[in-house]
Amino acid sequence: MSAEPLEPPVAALFPERAAREQVEDRLTRALAAAAERVLKGPVMPDIDMTEFRRDLAAFDFAAPRPLDEVIDWAIGRLEHGTVHMTHPRYFGLFNPPASFPAQVADRISGAFNPQLASSGSSPAPVAIEQHVIRGFAQRAGLPGESTGHFTTSGSEANYTALVCALTRADPKFAEEGVRAFPGPVAMYTSRECQPAWHKIAHQSGIGRAALRLIATDGAGRMDARALAEAVSEDRRRGIVPVLISTTAGTTGAGMVDPLAACAAIAREGNIWHHVDAAWGGAALCSERLRGELAGIELADSVTIDAHKWLATTMGCGMFITRDPAITSEAFRVGAEFMPSSASSIDPYLNSVQWSRRFMGLRLFLSLAAAGWRGYGAHVERAAQVIASVEARLAALGWSVVNDSRLAILCVLPPEGSAPVKEIVRRMLASGRAWSAVAKLEGRDVLRICATHGETSMADVEELVAALEAAR
Ligand SMILES: *Cc1c(COP(=O)(O)O)cnc(C)c1O
After folding, report:
1. Cβ distance 310 to 359 under 8 Å?
2. Where do the structural domains in the chain lie, given as residue ranges?
3. pLDDT tens digits, one per residue of 403-448
4. Strand, helix or coil for residue 131
5. Is-contact 313 98, C-beta < 8 A?
6. Whose CA is nearest to atom 3 of ligand 1?
7. What is the pTM of this model?
């Protein structure tokens, strides 16, 4: 290759402004039209995967294709090849349709593509993220010096909590790993915990056997007495308890562990107390529902996922801690080449990630546009949707088996109905609505969660009718 003159830029990757604007305008209209079609279609994917794989294989990347054509192809396949979280009758897992400001934020951060690793490269974005984190810390009632950072997920935030707990439990952990402890270590969460904890125990090096799944109280909440007993029993055997993780809004049933009682056990044993409020943390926005999370203010650290009930785009988690020094100790590193590596707030010096996307803008724009009050109304609306489903199903003889004021309902059908798994299978086959089977206290239950900000009463009626037809 000769050095000069330079070839022109690759136009397919970096089109000129006029061409770019034309594609963007078309894209805006194409997405709006697709969203309307999704509302009228089935919640479930209806794609023929055999045909699709053939189609996909035809992309051998030898001959470039026009971007417009590939965009249409991608939108069409997403339209038919996913369970639609954007459908108002997706009463599903914690996957929301994204708020509009969050979608706008992705577009803005995609355009500037700031590197959030350091405040030297991205002073304004890093400050914006810190501002949002502090806002949620304050909302949770944590002390004013609390800090934290955005994560790609709740799992990453929970993993961060374990690393912080280990780091605080023994100053030698940083250099020697778990060998630093006088005995094997253990962490505690409940039988109803989110299952990623098993992977977290594995990847952190404490091992899956170090995870204690504490018994629940028959209603899906951690039994605080059983927790206290497990901790003392472990200590008697020379095991070192490092972390208690309570759940505020279990994945299966929206239950909140006895946070204050567990915090007291943690404090007494000098054990790190983490509250996994990945989904339930959104309730902090509502004056009416934040009381459900009472005790969260006692936590050493908290996980809240904005990409769940706060409806940002995926994935947008938060790790918040009352101990501002702990993350700088747990994630410290020296790197001469990094701009302003002396700044203690640099995300790469305080978190798992290095290169980092501007995730926090999604929550900042949403919160700035809606205010706490708007987010509170969004959360309360979901709880109201679930209360309406509950009233209708109860009137038809279904029994409610969870006692949560958050927006998840677990029910069992009237006697003589098909098993829950079969009811869900039939309903999904009908495409009328989406809900899941979950395990609560060891048995299969039908789990209905309000995730969509625009679900209407007509959608509630349709869900109930679909369930009645399927049972
Ligand atoms: C969803 C969830 C997680 C995992 O979060 P991801 O963002 O999916 O990694 C952890 N804990 C609870 C309680 C959750 O609901």
Report:
1. no
2. 106-366
3. 999 999 999 999 999 999 999 999 999 989 999 999 999 999 999 9
4. helix
5. yes
6. 154
7. 0.96
